[in-house]
Amino acid sequence: METSLILLQPVLIMFLIAAIGFIAFRTGKISNEGSKTIGNLLIYISLPAVIVKGFMVERTEERMVGLLISMAAAAVTLTICVVVSRLCFRKDPIASFGAAFSNPGFFGIPLITAILNDGAVFYIAPFIAFLNLLQWSYGVSLLTGKKTGLNAKQVLTAPFMIAIAV
After folding, report:
1. What angle, rounded to 10 degrees, do the helices at 61-88 and 93-100 form?
2. Which phi and psi (to 5°) does residue 113 adopt?
3. 134: Cβ contacts below 8 Å, ≥ 6 apart
4. 63 near 57, Cβ under 8 Å?
5. 133 Cβ contact list (under 8 Å, min separation 6)
6. Cα(35)–Cα(20) distance, rounded to whole angstroms?
7. Angle subtended by helix axes 121-134 and 61-88, to nearest 10
8. pLDDT band at 20 (very low <50, low <70, confident <90, very high)
9. Cβ-based neighbour number of residue 32 at 10 Å
10. Among 59-63, 65-69, 117-121, which is the least confidently predicted range?
11. Residue 138 confidence (pLDDT)
12. Chain-centre distance of CA 52, in angstroms?
């Protein structure tokens, strides 16, 4: 019950922010261009800042082992998600993409930090990194129907990768 109450506050805050954004957009206070700008602020500034803050922990052998375990778990989990979603939604690439990929950056990080603490972002970062790599390679090819290779320059200069490197 205590965990539910801890989760309730950030969920309500996210819901209120989303509702305010929806109302602002529907009433013309935020345009399509403004919406894109706000999204860019989140992608290029907020999420990288949270990741950098999450990596500001003392490096111990235990944490590094935990990070490696987190990386392996992320790779396995995302592989399973991609395979299962592809099997379930063979003829619907949008459904396959939606079923395979979550939004851990904007919703997962606030919820996990509310339950655990800011240090938990250290272990979440590999999942976000692998997820973004898959979304911008496999996901793009899935949605466009084109076989696209992984553009190393785009991946290395992506905001989440720069944040992890920092």
Report:
1. 160
2. -70, -30
3. 78, 82, 100, 101
4. yes
5. 150, 155
6. 12
7. 40
8. very high
9. 8
10. 117-121
11. 84
12. 14
- Which tokens in the block code for residue 142? 């899935």
Tokens of 15: 């819901």
Residue with tokens 């013309």: 28
- What the block records as the tokens of 89 is 């939604």
CA 8 vs CA 12, 90, 115, 136: distances in Å: 6, 36, 10, 32
- DSSP annotation of 102 reads -
Query: What contacts 48, CB < 8 A, 6 or more positions away?
Result: 159, 160, 162, 163, 166
| Residue 130: predicted pLDDT | 83
Alpha-carbon distance of 36 to 112, in angstroms, equals: 26
User: Tokens at residue 4, please?
Assistant: 């539910």
What are the tokens at 154?
Answer: 């785009």
> Can you tell me the distance from the alpha carbon of 109 to that of 119, in angstroms, rounded to the nearest whole number?
11
